[in-house]
Amino acid sequence: MNDGAAAAADKPWVMRTYAGHSSPRESNALYLRNLGKGQTGLSIAFDLPTQTGYDPDSPMARGEVGKVGVPVAHLGDMRVLLDAIPLDRMNTSMTINAPAMWLLALYVTLAEEQGVELGELTGTTQNDIVKEYLSRGTYIFPPAPSLRLITDMIAWSVANTPKWNPINICSYHLQEAGATPVQEIAFALSTAVAVLDSVRDSGQVTAEQLPAVVERISFFVNAGIRFVEEVCKMRAFTALWDDITKERYGVTDAAKRRLRYGVQVNSLGLTEAQPENNVQRIVLEMLGVTLSKQARARAIQLPAWNEALGLPRPWDQQWSLRMQQVLAYETDLLEYGDIFDGSHVIEAKVASLVADAREELDRIDAMGGAVAAVESGYMKGRLVSSHSDRRRRMESGEQRIVGVNTLTEHEPSPLTENLGEAIMRVDPAVEQQAIDSLQAWRDARDSEEVEQALARLAGDAASDRNLMEASLACARAGVTTGEWAQALRSVFGEYRAPTGISGTVGAGHRAALEPVRVAVEQTSRELGTKLRLLVAKPGLDGHSNGAEQVAVAARDAGFEVIYQGIRLTSQDIVSAATQEDVHCIGLSILSGSHLQLVPAILDGLRVAGMGDVPVVLGGIIPDDDAQALMKLGVAAVFTPKDFDLTQIMAEIVGIIRARQLPRTTQIPANRSTSA
User: Fold this and answer.
1) Which DSSP string do the residues of 61-91 spell out, in sequence order?
2) pLDDT per position as a tens digit, 462-479
3) SS3 43
4) How far apart are CA 290 and CA 13, in angstroms?
5) Whole-angstrom Cα distance, residue 624 to residue 633?
6) 4: Cβ contacts below 8 Å, ≥ 6 apart
7) Greatest CA separation found in the chain?
8) Burial class (CB in 10 A: 0-12, 13-18, 19+), 618
9) How many CA atoms lie within 13 A of 232 on its CB side?
10) Measuring CA to CA, which residue among 597, 614, 617 is closest to residue 550?
11) Which of 62, 124, 337, 534 could be cross-linked to 582 through a Cys-Cys bond (beta carbons 3.0 to 4.6 Å apart)?
């Protein structure tokens, strides 16, 4: 047709909202409401204990149960979570990585109980552990056994759940961690190569089955605000995946080589300042993964406008769902072929991205592949450096963010008139309720059957047998998430990934930084020792991007920085503060667990005789929570509005001087938030 219109309109993508909170029952009610509003798939958010293989009664789970997702500790929880949802008619995405095999085992067991043919199950488990080492931090095991779990799960799925995508290679969180478009493409594709090589070399699939494996590899990408560049990124992604699967794995069927991907638009780009602007950001970012037909997402989930403030309410999620529906059902987008075909501007940008990504892929391949690039710290270091460069551009004003570092004047927003009601709050009682429910489950099950299932799992882990059948046996026996993970921990051990901050060049000696460096040097001289800052992430929150940037900025300002990575207990932090004799402790918490974790650290410091050491806090902290914590002794609270780390370093120096040199320095005004 001369006007480029398609003969028939394309089907819309699968529409999801990323959701789950408090308990399986409350999350189930939310899912049923969302499906009733026209949502066409589920995207299940699990809480951090579930994602890291702990039961709700584990000391590591304190303060984290039901906060950023739903706790699922056993098959009974999965039954409640998906009650009245027919799994043969549902496309389900599960954001779960280290225990992905376990959650799939629970899902499959529930499907069997529903009488569903396993061949009818559609959806995906994220299951990308490589990016967990680089960004989100919800890993458990070292790279080699983690890759084995992924390999076993893919091999089993291809044979038993052929419509299910057993892995969703997730470049989304790479962009959050600072990845450029080239890095996002290259790091994600290198992960896919590592996974496919492992499956091919495992001997669990035949050469004839390999194209079916390739077809079931899916991706989960990030769509940023530069939506023209995002269109080009996805066209480059598609072209490179087609080349890799044809050249490296010999897949001749073009349909099996097609890039299958879902998307969540960029939560990193949401701002706490003038949050109403997030609505148009979300829409523009959605366009980047829908406008080009040949590179259009298969599934889309949009964040809510207020996710930089806290947990969104059902109404906020509805608003985001409606954005998708308006684009799909009211516009003419789906009536045309690819509207960018023939554009010399788009083609040139795509060619540039492809060339640069190939160069990065070759570099990683020469290192021994994605796993080796993780273990060496190469990938993490590149991401921290890229993120640091982004921060520099924001601080200098080179990268303008409306309402944050430019055009900050604004009228009061009716959306946030009562900020305490603009977000959902999880009832603190849910943690004890989850613990009580867990105990009741344990009391009702056959303990001998549980022990036998766990013994089989550990035995298979110590051998080369596929671990999926043993995991299914555990699910049917009533094993819990923490028990499954502990059985594998006993065989595989645990892992601590490189932090990526050593060798990263940050802000350098910019003019704004120099007065801070002078203040740090002067204070060090007056105290007779170099200023030492402990940067710490308590609890299970593995989103370390902000903490890493704080560590880099503090080092650039002249501090001696102690940073031990993620997943620390309050005692770990107190011990490090004592051993290093630090002058200030900076805590980073994004999971909503600050009201439980921070007081425990303050108490521990007082017991250790370090109650005079100032503690500052950064994260997504509602203002009333910030005020409560400052009454308990926190010296300052920084939120996403506080993007200027150079200014934050200046404030930290002032806080130290006020505590350590009270006779010569006035106490600066503490802040709960800053513009």
Assistant:
1) GTTTTTSSSB---SHHHHHHHTTT--GGG-E
2) 999 999 999 999 999 999
3) strand
4) 9
5) 15
6) 336, 337, 339
7) 81
8) buried
9) 23
10) 617
11) 534
- Among the residues of 262-416, which ranges form H helices? 278-287, 314-330, 344-367, 370-375, 378-396
Which range has the worst mean pLDDT, 132-136, 357-361, 487-491, 518-522?
A: 132-136
Decide if 281 contacts 406 (C-beta within 8 A). Answer: no
d(CA 35, CA 82): 12
Question: In 427-542, at which residue ranges do the beta strands (DSSP E only) sit?
Answer: 532-536
Order across the sheet with 299-301: list the strands.
Answer: 14-16, 299-301, 260-265, 217-223, 167-170
Q: Which residues are catalytic?
A: 18, 172-173, 537, 541, 543
Domains of the chain, earliest start first: 14-421 (3.20.20.240), 514-660 (3.40.50.280)
DSSP per-residue codes, 112-145: HHTT--GGG-EEEE---HHHIIIII----S-HHH
SS3 40: coil
3-state secondary structure of 336: strand
How many whole angstroms from its chain centre is CA 632?
30
Give me the amino acid identity at 10.
D
Contact status, residue 615 vs residue 602, Cβ threshold 8 Å:
yes
3-state class (DSSP) for residue 451: helix
Instruction: Please give the radius of gyration of the chain, using alpha carbons only, rounded to the nearest integer.
Output: 25
Average pLDDT for 652-675: 65
Rounded to an integer, the average pLDDT of 137-166 is 95
Spatial CB neighbours of 23, under 8 Å, sequence gap ≥ 6: 66, 70, 71, 430, 433, 434
Does the pTM surpass 0.85? The reply is yes
